[in-house]
Specification:
By secondary structure, the protein is of the alpha+beta class. 26% of the residues lie in helices and 30% in strands. The protein is globular, with a radius of gyration of 18 Å.
């Protein structure tokens, strides 16, 4: 069974379309877990009006943003595969969830599949955040640059493109592996670098990889600036603890980042593609 995790914050104007597309195009056994994250508009009313019983389960969070809200849904999931879908993404492909599972079935060392984009990393020599002491709360971390992007615009449909990290969403993750890794590390809350960290820890500890196998989907209807504005409004300019509170040394292909209270290493894999048996 597939467990679809949908976190929602103030999307009363859109969330009905997101949910209806999931109901229409998801095939096989599944559950939809909706996490209403501090909504102050009519999102709850719209969700309740559109939910289908007994497939849909509702949880509430006190405006904790993506990392913690996703963990609430993930930890309640019953499926052997979990899929994170954001509240500004509309699936537009029949059996999209079954397609996303194909790389997991085909390759024993795969633990995560994004339908959006995957990428490698490289050290940013012009970083303003390396060796920072202060909390970073007004922008994304710039210690690494994303490289070797794989997505719909440059990857054949029948290719699973392996990279260092996947971007949500939609992103499908092997639930057993996710449990072994203790889910998303909430030291990275509210959002930045939690997916990078999960991909790295899973590769380091289990030798498993991730990559992109795209689907037809309307992605990212909420702009970057809108996401960042909510982040800053929610956590303020002074109080946020953030993954880019960093200090470290760099070397070829590596950047060390400190995430209180532990260290992780960001690495770059050799970008490569794996052909799939079926392109449908």
């Amino acid at each position: 069974m597939h467990s679809i995790i949908l976190t929602v914050h103030n999307k009363g104007w859109l969330i009905d379309k997101v949910m209806q597309a999931i109901y229409q195009y998801t095939h096989g056994p599944y559950e939809l877990i909706v996490v209403l994250d501090g909504c102050s508009d009519n999102s709850e009313e719209v969700v309740m009006a559109n939910k289908i019983e007994p497939t849909t389960f509702i949880h509430y969070a006190p405006d904790v943003f993506e990392t913690k809200a996703n963990n609430i849904g993930l930890k309640s999931a019953q499926g052997d595969k979990v899929i994170i879908v954001q509240d500004d993404m509309i699936v537009n492909e029949p059996s999209w969830n079954l397609r996303m599972q194909k790389p997991l079935d085909a390759f024993s060392d795969v633990f995560a599949v994004t339908a959006r984009t995957a990428h490698n990393w490289e050290y940013n020599p012009n970083s303003q955040h390396i060796n920072m002491v202060e909390d970073l709360d007004n922008c994304w971390c710039d210690i690494v640059n994303h490289t070797d992007h794989a997505g719909r615009n440059n990857t054949p449909r029948d290719v699973y493109a392996v990279r260092s990290s996947v971007n949500r969403g939609p992103v499908m993750i092997d639930h057993e592996v996710l449990q072994k890794m203790n889910y998303l590390d909430e030291q990275f809350a509210p959002q930045d670098m939690d997916d990078h960290d999960l991909c790295y820890r899973t590769y380091r500890e289990l030798g498993k990889v991730c990559g992109c196998y795209w689907i037809d989907c309307l992605l990212g209807l909420l702009t970057f600036q809108q996401r960042k504005s909510r982040w800053i409004a929610l956590f303020g300019q002074r109080d946020q603890t953030h993954s880019a509170r960093t200090s470290g040394s760099t070397g070829t292909g590596q950047v060390w980042m400190r995430s209180q209270p532990k260290w992780i290493v960001c690495w770059t894999t050799q970008a490569h593609a794996r052909g799939m048996v079926c392109s449908q």
